[in-house]
Design goal:
single chain; mainly alpha; Arc Repressor Mutant, subunit A; 6 helices; about 10% strand; globular
Length: about 120
Amino acid sequence: MRILSTIDVLARFGKALADPTRAAVLLQLKDGPAFPSDLAESIGVSRQILSNHLACLRDCGLVAAEPAGRRVRYELADAKLAHALDDLLGTILTVDTICGCAEPAHDQDTTTGPFASAGVRS
């Protein structure tokens, strides 16, 4: 296991938040542990898509898988992440309708899809 620089830590967090599905998973897990099938249903994605996103979040060190009998439950890897997400959500940002970032995903309407169920608006 290697120790990451602060820039690497922020880059991993940014990578996780850059995708609406991963952001929705983190927001759901902010409220407590959940099983993948429940996450997939509440976010509105297939279990396979959710599995891929959970793998990414595990690789980034943001979520942990905990055995629960024959199932696996996911939770935030550290309680401080819930506070960080709350702090980010509490920050008021004024943004242009269209983001100048290189990735087209930033231009999405967040009044529908994974962010809508999490109560996040652009």
